[in-house]
Design brief:
The protein is mainly alpha-helical and 210 residues long. The chain has one domain. Helices cover 66% and strands 0% of the residues. The radius of gyration is 18 Å and the shape is globular.
Length: 210
Amino acid sequence: MPRLQITLLSNLSQNLLFIAVLIPSVILHEVSHGWIAERFGDTTARDAGRITLNPLVHIDPVGTLLVPAVLAFTGAPVFGWAKPVPVVPGRLRHPTRDMALVGIAGPLTNVALALIGGRVFLPFTSGIGAYVVFYFAYINVVLAIFNLLPVPPLDGSRLLPLALGPRGRRVWSSIEPFGLLIIFALLWIPQFSVVLTVPIRALAGVVGLT
């Protein structure tokens, strides 16, 4: 087989593996948001049928499939998202505090998945199995760190209001419609990717990937 065909096949396999790993990771991430919200009084996600592992109700054609595939093929930093689980802050018992806890639940779920992959399964697998487990754990490390960025609508933006007064929270919420544009702009800044690798490598070491 010509070298070019081997390379293309390898790249295709990696991208398919990325999507296969990303889908359950972002689904569990989103389910955790809804589950924690329900614990604090908001049953919106439950009522919408979103506290489920059925991927069909969580997959966002753009965020879960198209954007990650395009970014992977173009060599840009890859990220993706599932269809956001609906949460109504006004239905939570303590909206600001509880929204922060709902937000942090997603990254903590990814950290837990990375730990399970890196510390529990990776030491006992080999060959292609070890590669898949490593990739799964690493993707969850990246998802955890990336989602902790304090940029709306990422989960880190739910933590910042804890330190803001009412006026600051209103200003912060006004930025949310421009959040995705800010994220895309950051991803194309080389220095941003370099800075982001620092916490990613640190967490990768904690979960047993280095």
